[in-house]
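SAMPLE LOG
Freezer: B-3
Tube label: C17
Construct: single chain, 175 aa
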Amino acid sequence: MVITETKLKGAFVIELDRFEDGRGFFACAWSDREFGAAGLNTSFVESNVAFNKKKGTLRGMHYQLPPYDQAKLVRCTRGSIYDVIIDLRRGSPTFKQWFAIQMSADNHRLLYVPGEFAHGYLTLDDNTEMFYQTSSYYAPEHGRGVRWNDPAFNIFWPADPLVIIDRDREYEDFS
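STRUCTURE (predicted):
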């Protein structure tokens, strides 16, 4: 696998080294040794699946407060998404900056999202499925979010969401 840091320190795109033959391919998508050598959190406690019926579904931008913040390893297993992360670490040189990547079942990319980052995505296909692992358990009382179109971040989205829940639409401006 090729682990490449994004412009946001601590966030990484993982491209699979594929070993192909007439059957298809084989690739390692997780290695405690390789992730640890890159300085990534290697302790995941939950695996989650999110299924989205409609193209244009927006989920996010979500995070959990420390000490329940979650590092995430995210992969699109069906369909495709426009995945966005925001650095919310107040002392970080990339505080309030965002990074986006298109991930799909076809390109097999993974995104490693550090704790204290907001995360969300817009589906680009109907029937899109996400699989992600988290470094801490879901703690709803520590869950927070920022609005997908908050001017504090000025995120470029390829389209406006067609499906979004009220909570994600109504987060207050980030301060």
